[in-house]
Amino acid sequence: MANVSLILLDDVEHLGLAGEEVRVAAGYARNYLIPKKLAAKATPGTLRLIESRKAAIAARRAADLAAAKELAEKLATVEISIAMQATEDDQLFGSVTSRMVAEELKNQGYAIEHSRIIIEPAIKTLGSFTADVKLHAEVMASVKIWVVRG
To answer: What is the pLDDT of residue 1?
Structure first.
């Protein structure tokens, strides 16, 4: 397989930051990065475009970090309650998923993607738990979860 050289136009998790040159598989570039305008082929024109955008990219990164820190402070006080069916010895029929947590957060006014919610270890009993929320590459927040009999 041939790798292609691309310039990232936006930050891509697990790949790199905007302005970096990366080598990726041709299919990943053709089917994901280029159509979503996350990257462009590494040409002299693209390099000049990125150089002219460096200040705007840095400002956007700083604004995103500040917004993530502010949201993390708000989430630190949030407690959600999820009603689940359970056995007599408090074992759940199933487990609490990140989608359930995301839905409850959405009901409280926090729009967070379920893929950013990390529940380790899986919640399979009634009780009080915490879930981590990855808001930014540098910012993690915790949310208190109460699992109650439903």
So the answer is: 61
> What whole-number distance in Å separates Cα of residue 89 and Cα of residue 11?
47
pLDDT of residue 110: 92
- Please state whether the peptide bond connecting residue 44 to the residue before it is cis, i.e. omega within 30 degrees of 0: no
Structure tokens at 1: 């397989």
C-alpha distance from residue 120 to each of 41, 90, 131 (Å): 39, 19, 7
Burial of 26 (0-12, 13-18, 19+ CB in 10 A): exposed
**Degrees to nearest 5, angle at CA 123 with 119 and 129:** 75
Which residues face 118 on adjacent strands?
132
pLDDT tier at 54 (50, 70, 90 boundaries)? confident
Residue 128 and residue 146 in contact, taking contact as beta carbons nearer than 8 Å? yes
Residue with the bigger pLDDT between 102 and 46: it is 102
pLDDT at 150: 83
Cβ density class 90-106: b for 16+ within 10 Å, e for less: eebeeebebebbbebbe
